[in-house]
Amino acid sequence: MILINLLPHREARRQRRKVAFFAGLGVSAVVGLAIVGGWYLVVQQFTSNQQQRNQYLSAEIKKLEVQIKDIATLRAEIESLKARQRAVEDLQIDRNVPVHLLNELVKQTPEGIYITSVKQAEMALRAMTERLKLLATTDGLTGLVNRRAFDEALETEASRSTRSSSPMSLLMIDVDRFKSYNDLYGHQAGDEVLKAVGQCLKATIKRPADLAARYGGEEFVAILPDTDEDGAFFIADAFRESLKALAIPHQGGDKKVVTASVGIAVTSPDDQVGPAELLHRADEALYTAKHAGRDRVTGWRRPRPIEVRA
């Protein structure tokens, strides 16, 4: 009797096991499909990327083929030009044809037209190169020579001065209280002041061999070959006065207008120094001018030996 009562329970457990088994199979199938679908997307993406790379490579190969054809065409044109040149030379030798007639003959041929185009391209390239050189050595704001070109020029002039035993002067210029000017009037107005300083300096230094440059920030320099200390003072004072005469307002300045201080260093046959020492001396002279009240010109003086008494 007890066994008969247990049979329905066993059947129920058997049914539950079947349900659990088939549910597990369903979950496994779903997971399997998800994995397969993910791999399918990865393969599709890889295939798409591969197709794009193949298209890119095909386009690049076509470009290279065009360039190779252009090179082959150019080589053929060069060979044609060489052949034409040899023919013209033979014609000149054999028939004694005047050179100017040969030139006209070359100009009237396709090769001559090609030569003219090449010459024009060469001239344009040369002009562009000169323009780039000028830009590389010019200060964009003031139009003066920049620091790099100044350093090269100073080396050259210092060597020439030493070889020829001739004097050379160096001016170092600083706009007085320029930071205060920028704070009061703004950097755009400060740029206009720097332009004005550059114009005054350029107008004062007139000899072809003289060189004015923007040294950096509000500092300017000038190289004066074959100029002794008296000549340097004359030019520096003329510059200082011309800038002051512009009367550019500067409420933060000592004179209420924009002014500049100038330091002078001179190399002479009796005192030949290199570019670095000359710059150092000009900087010291400028420092002295600043501390003496600004708006003035000061020349470098050799420090006096300190007398030591026992």
State the main characteristics.
five-stranded mixed sheet, elongated, 310 residues, alpha+beta, Alpha-Beta Plaits, 8 helices
Task: Summarize the model shown.
The chain is α+β, with helices and mostly antiparallel strands. The chain is 67% helix and 10% strand. Among the domains are: 90-136, no CATH class; 147-299, Alpha-Beta Plaits (2-Layer Sandwich).
If you had to describe this structure to a student in words, what would you say it looks like?
- The chain is an alpha+beta fold.
- Among the domains are: about 45 residues, no CATH class; about 150 residues, Alpha-Beta Plaits, CATH 3.30.70.270.
- Helix content is about 65%, strand content about 10%.
- It has eight helices and five strands; from the N terminus they run ααααβααββαβαβ.
- It has a five-stranded mixed sheet with strand order 2-3-1-4-5, sandwiched between helices.
- Strand 4, helix 8 and strand 5 form a beta-alpha-beta unit.
- It is elongated and about 125 Å long.
- About 0% of the residues have low confidence.
Low-confidence stretches: 91-95
- Sheet with most strands: strand arrangement: 2-3-1-4-5
Strand content: 5-15%
Q: Report the top-level CATH class of the domain at 147-299.
A: Alpha Beta
- CATH fold assignment of the domain at 147-299: Alpha-Beta Plaits
Mean pLDDT: 79
CATH superfamily of the domain at 147-299: Reverse transcriptase/Diguanylate cyclase domain
Shape: elongated
User: How large, in whole angstroms, is the Cα Rg?
Assistant: 42 Å
The helix content is 55-70%
Helix-strand sequence? HHHHEHHEEHEHE
Structure annotation, total helices: 8
End-to-end span in angstroms? 138 Å
Main sheet specs: 5 strands, mixed
